[in-house]
Amino acid sequence: MELLLDISLLSMLVATAVGIALSRDLLAAVMLSSIYGLLSANFFVNMDAVDVAFTEASVGAGISPLLMFATLAIVGRHERYPHQRALAALLLVALTGALLILATFDMPAFGAVDAPAQTHVAPRYINDSYSEIGIPNIVTSVLASYRGFDTFGEVVVVFAAAVGVLSLLTVSQSASSRVPEHLLKASHHKILRVVSKVLIAPILLFALYVQFHGDYGPGGGFQAGVIFAAAIIVYTMLFGLEAARQVINVTVVRILAAVGVLLYGSVGVVAMLNGKNFLDYDALAHDPLHGQHYGIIVIELGVGITVAAVMILIYFSFAGRLIDRSPDA
Question: Where does the MrpA C-terminal/MbhD domain lie (predicted)?
């Protein structure tokens, strides 16, 4: 039964990928990519990788399509396909795919018991993480403690990406190339607006649950930040940018994007001031397990704040670039 389910999911993934490659309608491609994310999340759940599935569902099927929709409002829905370059692109993709397939022959077989991940890394984390970190979620232990410095780098990359995107989107644009704000909000969809008012508050509450329950179950700062931002973006799409700005102060959000990174890094600085290595949470309390727990809570909070703020800022910048502020709009 499990094999049949795997084959079905993989078949749907291949069919969805082919549909994305063949579609010239960018809106359809975005919708298919969202479906691809949901199928991937189901596949990861079937492989017992629940944390990865959670991330794929929230990012691949959640926030990414929303940002792509905002992009389509700028670039247009239909792709202008350069037919004269189709053969060169096909050859390049075929060559890249062949090299990737060739590289898989040097990898251990899927699920092989003698693979390095099974003989070295996995036993170390499974057998020792609870006694060293003190939390039941091994994935959180690895990402937030064992690989804490690497995760810090990922948060810095998210912040740097936000700076780059905001720098590009703040380039002056003539009002004639913008669209009226009423095209960016579903003011005439009464059902969507009513349902959103019922669902947005539970979504925000769920984001907080994912944020602070990541030590004990699937979740953490990345997933919580994306879920929180998705709720704000849905509100913006349904009620308009100006209504959202009355609730969300853009200046405060920009500050929070940097505060999350600083909060993460400050944990490492505090550890160094107490004579430990950077991001060694043992220095945060007399009991090393308590120190690990405190450190993980703080750095995950920093991750969630930065991710949520960055996603909100990027969408607000897209929407603000599109709004026609001329008097006759």
Answer: 12-73
